[in-house]
Structures are given as C-alpha cells and as structure tokens.
Amino acid sequence: APAAFTGADVYQRSFDPQEYLKEFYSLSDSQGQPNTFLMQNLRSLFKMFSLDGLRGDTLIDVGCGPTIYQLLSACEHFQEIIALDYTDQNRRELEKWLKNEAGAFDWKPVVKYVCELEGDREKWAEKEEKLRKKVRQVLKCDVTKANPTDPVSLPPADCIVSTLCLEAACKDLATFRSALRNIGGLVKPGGHLVMVTVLRETYYAFNKQVFSCLYLEKNMVEEAVEGAGFDVKFSEVQTYLAGDIRTDCEAVLSLVARRRASIT
Ligand code: SAH
C-alpha cells in the first residue's frame, strides 16, 4: 500500500544521511551487484550536462540531500555552486565531504566512474578538488515556499539541478506544480532546469523506515515543468528493472528545460 505522506518535518526528524548513502550510493552492494540505478543516473547527468547551453557562472542544487553525484558532471560547466536542502543533518553530511572531514562518505568509486564516462578515469582527485572549491554555500531551503531560501534571497542562477527531491517533498500534484514554480524562480529567464525524477514510485525505504513518494508519470512532470514557465528541451525515460524490495520505482525520468523569457 502507498505510504502515508512523509513531509519535511519527518525528514528533519528521521532521515539518516549515513544510512541513506550506504543504502543507495555504493557503486556495488554487499553481494557485489552493481548499483544500476546510480550508474544510469550518472550517465544521464553526464549526457544532460553535455548538451549545448548547459554552462554558465552559477548553479543551484535544490534538495541536494547528503549527496554530490548530481554535481560531478555539472561542476565542469559552472563556476560556482550553491547547494540547498531542508534538513540540517543532510547539509551537515554534505559539508563533511566538502571539508574532507573524517567520517565523510567515500565518493571515490562514484567520482572515478564519472571520470571514466568523461574520458579520463585518472582525473578523479582533480575533480574532487574542483567540486570542493566550487560549492560556495550550503543553505536551508523549503521547496514549498514561494522563495525556497527565505529569508535569504539568492540572485537567479544560470541553471538549477534537482534530483529525487520534489517527488519526495510534495504531497500531491498541485504541490508538485507549485514547487516547480517556486524553484523556477531561482533560475534566470533563459537559464536551465536539470531534473532526475522517479516515475510510478510510491515509496522508498532504508534503515527500517519508509518514505513516501508522489506517484508521477512522464507527462505529469513535463506538464508541470511547462506550467512553471519552462520549455522542455530533453526528456528521456529509463526503465528501472524492479525486483527491489527497497522501492516500487519503475522508471527514471531525466529532463532538461529552459526557462522562458518573462513577457513583461
Ligand atoms: N538529491 C539527493 C537527495 C534526495 S532525498 C539525491 O539525489 O539522492 C530527498 C531530499 O529532499 C532529502 O534530502 C530531503 O531533506 C529533501 N526535502 C524533503 N522535503 C523538502 C522540502 N520541503 N524542501 C526542500 N527539500 C526537501
């Protein structure tokens, strides 16, 4: 049965970043099985950030969680990155890695994999350093607020990226649509939105806890993106071969859209 909605307060209270990372961001599991979900998403992100026009000065990551994989290809094309998330513990976990602190998650296998996609596996240490330098701020945000970073006002960015966040943060389609309008305000007209969203998923679980997920189809996401003032430029569905007890996810949508010029 679909899980009851788990809102931002539940994330703040019970989302354990280290358990999340261990469960979903190892390149292979304890039986040595490859993490196809992650590898697929890394390939999509590489492809999307290679598209024409996906470059500029500033990038904002919305709902970053404790992860950096979504920034590995992105950091080659933007000068400054601001990462946003609702929960204190996820921002803290991300900072641990950024500051190279003891106990930080080991992203090396993932960084190496992305370097290999980009043509040079040997560059992983350089890439880590580049990313650590480029992430300038890690701030609190709430995607359900008109200004997600309220009371802070960020200058609109050249690009925003959001992976696996809105479908977790939004209780229904109306909230999802308005969250897209809210985060759309963080990007300049003419700037880009890069999204990775799971489709037809109602829950994911780890560490004996279940988190709800808004059930979405490709057209629902695309319509919401268009409705938030963007033109969809790239949209690709990859099926996720089930047989996974941790989630009922069936596919992943990778999408790039460009914010329309405002008509005022
Ligand atoms: N982007 C990461 C994390 C996804 S997990 C990844 O790709 O793995 C979902 C994230 O959404 C969590 O980090 C959670 O803290 C965040 N979140 C939940 N509700 C939110 C809200 N209302 N505003 C902003 N972030 C929220």
Automatic annotation (TrEMBL):
Enumerate the PROSITE patterns for this protein: SAM_MT_NNMT_PNMT_TEMT (PS51681)
Classification via SUPFAM superfamilies: S-adenosyl-L-methionine-dependent methyltransferases
For the keyword Lyase, the answer is no
* Gene3D superfamilies for this protein: Vaccinia Virus protein VP39
Record-linked Pfam families:
NNMT_PNMT_TEMT
**Keyword Methyltransferase on this protein?**
yes
Any one Gene Ontology BP term: methylation
NCBIfam families (UniProt xref): GntF_guanitoxin
Which parts of the sequence bind S-adenosyl-L-methionine?
Answer: Y20, Y25, Y69, D85, N90, D142, V143
GO cellular-component term (any): cytosol
Task: Report which superkingdom the organism of origin falls in.
Answer: Eukaryota
Residues in the signal sequence: none
What this protein is called in its record is NNMT methyltransferase
Which InterPro entries is this protein grouped with? NNMT_TEMT_trans (IPR000940), SAM-dep_methyltransferase (IPR053384), SAM-dependent_MTases_sf (IPR029063)
The family note in this entry says: Belongs to the class I-like SAM-binding methyltransferase superfamily. NNMT/PNMT/TEMT family.
Its keywords, alphabetically, are: Methyltransferase, S-adenosyl-L-methionine, Transferase
UniProt GO molecular function: N-methyltransferase activity; S-adenosylmethionine-dependent methyltransferase activity
Originating species: Burhinus bistriatus
